[in-house]
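Limitations
The structure tokens in this dataset are predictions for the assembled complex, not deposited experimental models. Users should treat interface geometry with appropriate caution, especially where small molecules or nucleic acid strands are included. An illustrative entry is reproduced here so readers can see what is and is not provided.
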Amino acid sequence: QVQLQESGPGLVKPSETLSLSCAVSDYSIRSDYYWGWIRQPPGKGLEWIGTISHSGKTYYKPSLKSRVTMSVDTSKNQFSLKLSSVTAADTAVYYCMRELGGAADYWGQGTLVTVSS
Amino acid sequence: QSALTQPASVSGSPGQSITISCTGTSSDVGNYDLVSWYQQRPGKVPKLMIYEVSKRPSGVSNRFSGSKSGNTASLTISGLQAEDEADYYCCSQTISGPSVIFGGGTKLTVL
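Predicted assembly:
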């Protein structure tokens, strides 16, 4: 059973960089799957942010591409998200997930990140 | 890159069947057989119900089925049960990026 667990600050100041990590357990990140992030603002729908392969190949949502950086650390079996220049609109529950063909079959529990001064 | 279009809400009585539509364009739903559907109960993590248009992950009830015609995908739930009450989201690969795009979500109420 693949397990994913997000970690990172729950509060980020406007204009700063949001940084999250996702630790993967019971499955090697060095697989044919992609690993990525989806977010959900409070009371709203899901938004795909992007994915990364174990070799570092990335795909980002076009409207976020200028602010998003994803990386992978195979030695720690984890991957990370950085989102720069955040505003209140970036306040959301951030989920990490495993993806293949656009389908996220395993998800972390989600972590709420609030952007506020 | 606009979101896929889903009805805001649908409802049905126990035992009935309902269908949720998901309309995109020739750049997403119409161009890829990579449509997936998620169920999200209140306060819970989304759960994958359908992938690659019509495939069910292990453990998902066969009451859930998916299909696609042109730029519109559909999720059908047969034999509605109270536990099916949730928000449902469709999702598709899209040429833009390429990346993935979600629908706005549909709230299913079991009467």
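Some entries come with short summary sentences. For this one: The longest strand of chain B covers residues 86-94.
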